[in-house]
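User: Quick sanity check before I run a bigger batch. Here is a single chain. Can you write out its predicted 3D structure?
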Amino acid sequence: MRLVMESAGLTFWPSLSLALFMGSCLVMLAWLFRPGSRDFYRAMSGIALNDAEPLSGREE
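Assistant: Done. Predicted structure follows.
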């Protein structure tokens, strides 16, 4: 595969794709662990178990 890529002049694409993949993973991790997000995730984690409020648009 390397020989095919080198003969076609496409040697930078694998490096570029790896850099883009790693960059997107790092951005995702930074977004998940950003300051102040813990309270939001704790509040969202209990929504499925909360029977006190009906879902919007649902008639009971």
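Residues 38 and 50 are 19 Å apart (CA to CA).

User: Great, the batch can go ahead then.
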